[in-house]
From TrEMBL, chains A, B, C, D:
Signal peptide: none annotated. It is a multi-pass membrane protein. It comes from Pseudonocardia nematodicida. Belongs to the TMEM175 family. This is TMEM175 family protein. The chain crosses the membrane at residues 21-39, 51-70, 91-111, 117-137. Keywords: Ion channel, Ion transport, Membrane, Potassium, Potassium channel, Potassium transport, Transmembrane, Transmembrane helix, Transport.
Length: 205, 205, 205, 205
């Protein structure tokens, strides 16, 4: 069952490993705006309470990166080879992951402003679109996928990867009406992702 | 002995590797409050002496993360497959690891205050409970464990994973009486972990 | 086909993995000057606009590291063993990667100055030369390469690794005439890399 | 040739991988004091020149970590199993690696002071001693080593791991006479390491 490699094929292993490195670092750098926060002697409790918006955005970004990581994992579980275009698409994806600590920091400091909300939502949309593009490129015509992936399974993985970006989309127009309302609308990610996973169940690979 | 994969099973390898990335980064970020410290020309010695509480909390967090890493290692050595719920539990675990540099930094600056001690101990408890939950979920009914894991071996791993959180528990009420005493009580981790490892010896897997 | 190992041969696997770690961290640290930026309440939009040079240099460095990572990947895909000299050359290479966040930060703050541009271009040249040296050392006389690598394939990989440094070279004299013009000249990386990949196609390994 | 595992044996793979993560991050964090440096408009050149001690200490620490990484690599290439004591020794080793950005930062700012030099040299000695302890523990009586490791090869690896700490030792008393002289004495690492590698050549494993 060993196929001859096409000339532009490359080793698959380093791509998810390199991506995991970027994921792990980005997820950990999110804590830095908290670590740098100034806490005054004698009012540690109040200062911690004032940091709660930053703690909330840390948790939010952690959950979002965690969800994206799980989808990325699922996608690369279904590939058994890679080529150079996949590497470029994956770098575009990681650009979004590596950039996320910046919008997270702006949002933690200025959650009530329209540009902060739009910047954050745009960043998340970028990652979601790159994720869908990676799967679409690798799965169309079975270009890079394992033999076990059925058309139905491919549709399921596509649904999982577009769920989060779709749930984020409404927040961008909403941010011009009410930034606070827009932020609450991000909680849509949880039911929409859950529904996508239920409606389009994974198949074993 | 190759079993058919269940539909929701996922590749096991990326989970401990991704976790190791988060561990490695969190353990290394702990040094940043030290690196950022201002040292004045001509009194380098005194300034270093004044940094000793920060050096102590760096060492403390390093030892705690090191212990948790060893237990995490032991748990995943005993699994031979993974599913999506395990990934979610593991992300909850890593949330605690990635967050730890923040309580460490607060504690290093304000060790004598009740909220700093409670925040730090709560963070450690979170990780400990997530660790026990990962093992409990994966081992109950042999859901994800290797065939070689005996009921006795499973109990041993559970004991190892609950030892550290149990030793930390008393420090939270103590912090309201005396934050300093509460911090000393953390040293209980060393004898309690040692006792757990002795009383419940590992079995080969 | 198992050869006896020469006495100074070392395991190959840890070198690309360690390199990927350094890549992943350097690519992620690039965001820190953005995260540290001060955003003032009530003028979030304008402050974000003023950060655009920093966002541009983040994107530029990300693209450059991404390109270098792809070439590094290609080089190590073609090796099947390693020795101590290769490790030293690779550390010289990683020195350049780990250093890059510093010129990126200087450039983001002072793009219009000659020293900032020269520093950045020199750093990129260092990495490019180290990359070419790694390939030249490992491929000459088939020292570390797989049997499948033909002389033509070796030439192609050499061309890919020198493309980016060659495209950067003109920017150093240009920086003394016009730093802005020198920065625009970096965009030469895109067509020159593309041309190198087209003129010297990879062969399957 | 499959041996039965002893009860306290653990998987070997995650230890060097976790260590590489800590190495990669520590080596990359060394750049942060440079990234944070304040550069004033209109005197970028002079400010960069004033940063040269920090650039020198960055390069020094990079070379030292690089040397230690190569020795660590050699040691773990010679092991084929691991136990819990090895994990604890390795964590003690990584404590020194993760701590190094702090002495590096102090030294970069205050190289001419005795405490800065002593702190830095002590940190390097700690890593060197832990490295020798890891090898001594794992190789004595062939506890964890591959069958191919001869007594002569074991002596060679011990010599490689003690070379750097031995070369650093004189700098601690010297720092009380002249911190500058003590720093120059660190350059002894290069000839001493080179001599150790020549006098005690590696054997293939």
């Amino acid at each position: 069952m060993v196929r001859a490699r096409r000339a532009d094929e490359v080793g698959l292993d380093r791509i998810p490993m390199f991506s995991d490195g970027v994921f792990a670092i980005a997820i950990t750098l999110l804590v830095l705006p908290l670590t740098d926060a100034r806490i005054t002697e004698g009012r540690v409790g109040q200062d911690l309470a004032e940091l709660s918006p930053r703690i909330f955005t840390f948790a939010l970004s952690f959950v979002v990166i965690g969800r994206y990581w799980m989808v990325h994992h699922r996608i690369f579980d279904r590939f058994d080879r890679a080529d150079r275009r996949l590497m470029v698409l994956n770098l575009a994806y990681l650009f979004g992951i590596a950039f996320l600590p910046f919008p997270t920091s702006v949002l933690g400091g200025h959650g009530s402003s329209t540009p902060a909300v739009v910047l954050y939502a745009t960043n998340l949309l970028w990652i979601g679109c790159a994720s869908a593009a990676i799967w679409w490129y690798g799965s169309s015509g079975g270009r890079l996928t394992r033999d076990e992936v059925t058309p139905q399974g491919a549709r399921a993985t596509l649904a999982h990867s577009v769920a989060a970006p779709l749930a984020l989309l409404p927040s961008i127009p909403l941010a011009f009406l009410s930034p606070t309302l827009a932020m609450y609308s991000w909680l849509l990610i949880v039911p929409v992702s859950f529904a996508a996973d239920r409606l389009f169940p994974d198949e074993a690979v």
